[in-house]
Amino acid sequence: MYQQMIFVNLPVNDLDASKRFFTELGFTINPQFSDEKAASVVISDTIFAMLLTKPFYATFTKKEIADATTTSEVLVCLSAESREKVDELVGRALAAGGTESGEPQDHGFMYGRAFDDLDGHTWEIMWMDPAAVQG
Length: 135
Description:
It is built from 4 helices and 9 strands, in the order βαβββαβαββββα. The chain has 135 residues and is α+β, with helices and mostly antiparallel strands. The longest helix is centred in the middle third of the chain and has 13 residues, at 83-95.
């Protein structure tokens, strides 16, 4: 059965530093789709972050590349299996040089926190009670 995949392409200033950051979060780099211009960060079997140097990223668009430290271009939200896993991943991001983005959001059935990576891209990590999803 076909599984749709997502590839989030993000421009980065320092590819090596960004690769270190994401591996410190527990993700892996797929060397098959990585070189001196890009790194494929494996988030899950179907989710990948493609970290692209800004000159390489510019070959895919005619638009100006946003400075994610001052402009919000996208909010990437990843689910987590528990509240503790939310805190664990955000804690690793902060320890690796990321910055917390906003206050934790606790709605009882849903809990989330967010961090900005080294280039200012915002990553939201969210847990939702499975019973709430089922209705």
